[in-house]
């Protein structure tokens, strides 16, 4: 084991930043689950709401991706 | 990371995103022709060729290529008119171009040994900033100074406005960041994951079938992600355009 404290902090920080994925996972699960819930109740309206579904997915996913960006910044840019 | 380089099997999963001078060595400058530039030319060439060929037939019973072209065209046209109204159709050529460019660079980037243009923030940020400026200028041209009232939510109690207006302003200016990072990071992450799985295949011997099967699955998922991300980028463009044209 070699290296310095700063590098250790970088790696720990990058790992912690990946926790953003947990939130994104919960969010995407909510979006998909609720869409399916609504689609099962009223299948006729499901097709029209598919666009909103993807947009909701995108918003939930984006925040998880910000975590990835923070991790990459910590690893390569600091 | 550095100490594993001698093992032979190891390579950097980020190596595939490296940009280098296509003709000769030397540092990459703003004017150099890189592998990314070549890939962009290929993307533009392939998409122009396919769409021109598809649109030139005009048969009553369309061929596969023609119906693919027409379906894409109608899909985006309906998306624009549904989201941004008939006024938004003025911007349809621009939105369609953005969609086709992103879709083809995502899909062509999935071919092994090719290069994903949209995995670079420099490219996606340029696309998103172009959308941002187009939308903002459109808003100011249509509504004049009145467009600034976009940042003041309707029906909110007066004391809350002190808090709400800065939030609205910030969320407006964060748009190009999230718009570009979403596309860039989704492509980057997908390709990096595939590369990581690829490194497990050879060292595991016979057991390498498992990560190989995993890779086939992930590749299918990436095909989906490539199309969905192009769709999301485009529909967000439409939503921003609608905000500028109709204000809430």
Descriptive notes:
The complex is a heterodimer of chains A (78) and B (248). Chain A is an all-alpha fold and 78 residues long. Chain A has helices at 5-17, 20-41, 43-46, 50-77. Chain B has 248 residues and is an all-alpha fold. In chain B, 67% of the residues lie in helices and 0% in strands. Chain B contains six helices and no strands. Chain B has helices spanning 35-56, 64-84, 92-108, 121-143, 158-201, 209-246. In chain B, α1 crosses α2 and α2 packs across α6 (209-246). Chain B is globular. The chains are: A mainly alpha (78), B mainly alpha (248). At the A-B interface, α4 of A face α2, α5 and α6 of B.
Give a topology summary:
The complex is a heterodimer of chains A (78) and B (248).
Chain A lengths: L4 H13 L2 H22 L1 H4 L3 H28 L1
Helix pairs in contact in A: 1-4, 2-4
Chain B lengths: L34 H22 L7 H21 L7 H17 L12 H23 L14 H44 L7 H38 L2
